[in-house]
C-alpha cells in the first residue's frame, strides 16, 4: 500500500508537471504572439508609451520662464457598451449632463460588441462629479494628456495648437510653433520589443525670445485700437534691431488654442509672415536709404513738387492732393510726398533701386523658423521696366511684402545698416544676413526720420529721439482692378533712435472714421514705445 501511494503521488505530480509544461509551451509559443499583442494593446491604450510633450515658454526682462503651452492630464469619460445593462436609461441620464443628444448617445451605447466609446474629452470637474454620482455600470472616468494654453488667446497664431495624430493616440502639432517644432516637442514614443517595454523619451522644451509682458501690452493696445476704429484686422510686432530677436508678434482676430474648433480657419493665419500687403508710404524710407547710400542725392537735395506726376499715361498725386513747391529730400519723408519718392527713385535708377530692395530682403523669405512664410513679390519690377511701376514702388504700391520683411528692413537701418535674420528661440545665435547700407547712410536716414517725428509731434516722446514713418496704403480692388476706397494704416519706428533697443510695427486694416495713420496707429505706437522704454528702464538720450 505504501508503494502504491508513493507511486500515485509521483504519477500525479508527473502528470501535473507535464500539463504545466504543455500549458507554458502553449502560452509562450503557440499563443505567444496573441498575448504579446494583447499586452501591447493594453500598454498602448493606457498611455504608458506616450512621451510627455515639451512645454513652450516666453520670458521676461529678468530671464524668468513664463509657461504658455504645457501638457496636462484632463478627465476623459468613456463607455464600455458591452457592460451597460440598459442603454436607453443610460443615454437618458447622460444626455443632459454631457450635452449630447440622447439619440446619438443611445446609438453609441447600444453597440453590444464595443468595449470603448469615447464620450467626452477634457471633462469639467462638475461633469466628472455628476457622472461619478450616477454610478452607472459601463461608464468610466479616466485621464488623458492634453495641451493647456494658460494665457488663452495670447500669441495664438504664433504658438499654434495641437490635435490627436492619425491613430488618435498622441498629440501632434497643427499650426505655428507647435507644428514647426513638432518632432522636438513630441519626443520619442515608447515601444514593446520582444515583450520588453522601452520607455518613452520626453519632448524638448522651447524657450522663446518673446517677452510675455511686451507681448501682453502690445496685444492689449492693438485690440483697443481695432475696437475703437472698427478695423477689420491688425498686427503688431516688436523686434530687437541689434540681434533680430522677436520680442512680440501678434495678429488679430486671434483664437483660443484650448478650444480652436470654435474658431474660423482664417483666424489661425499668422499674417505677420503668412500674408502680404502693399506697404504704402513706409517704403519711402527704403527709397531714401537707397539714394543716400548710393550717393545719388543728400538730405538737402531739392526737388520742385508740382503736386502730380504723369508717367506711362498714369498720374501720380500726393495724398493731400497739394503742390508743395520747392522741397528737400528730408521734406519728402516729413510730408510723405508720393511725387518726391518717385523723383528720388528716378535719381537712383531702376536697376540700382531694384537691387536695394533685394538687399533689404524684399522678394525673399527671411528664413524665420515658423511654417508658411511667404516671400512677397517684386515681379512688377522684375518683369517690366515701365517707369510707372518703379515710381509707385518707391512709395510702396505695386509691390507686396510681409510685415516681417518690413520690420526687419527698418531694424537694419536702426542697426546702422546691417540686416539681421529674425529669430524666436533663445538658444539661437544672432545671424547677420548682410550689410545693406553704410553706417553714414543709416545715420542720415535716421536723422530724416527723427525730423519727421518731431514735425509730426504725435509720436514724439519727451527726452528720447524717436525715428519713425507712417504708411497709409490703398487696398487693391482684386475684382475690378485698381484700388478700393479702403486703407491700411501702418507705422514703423524705433527708439532710442541712434542706439535702438526695439523696433515696433503696428498696422490696422480698413479703419472706420479715420483717414490718416496719424490718428490711429501713431498714438498706439507711442503708447507701446513708452511702455517698453519704462519696462527696460532705458535712459533718455537727450535732456530736452
Q: Could you write a compact summary of the structure shown?
A:
With 544 residues, this protein is α+β, with helices and mostly antiparallel strands. The chain has helices at residues 2-30, 32-45, 87-98, 102-109, 125-134, 156-159, 176-180, 182-186, 212-228, 283-293, 329-335, 338-348, 350-359, 379-382, 387-394, 403-414, 439-456, 521-535; strands at 56-59, 66-79, 117-120, 139-148, 162-164, 171-173, 191-193, 196-198, 206-211, 233-239, 246-252, 302-305, 308-311, 314-317, 325-328, 418-420, 432-435, 467-476, 483-495, 502-509. Helices cover 37% and strands 22% of the residues.
Give a short account of the largest sheet.
5 strands, mixed
DSSP helical segment count: 18
Quaternary structure state of the chains depicted: single chain
**Shape from CA axes?**
elongated
Based on helices, strands and strand pairing, what is the structural class?
alpha+beta
From the alpha-carbon coordinates, what is the Rg to the nearest angstrom? 32 Å
Averaged pLDDT, please?
Answer: 88
As residue ranges, the low-confidence spans are 30-46
Give the beta-strand count: 20
What portion of the residues fall into strands of 2 or more residues?
15-25%
Helix content: 25-40%
How far is the N terminus from the C terminus? 122 Å
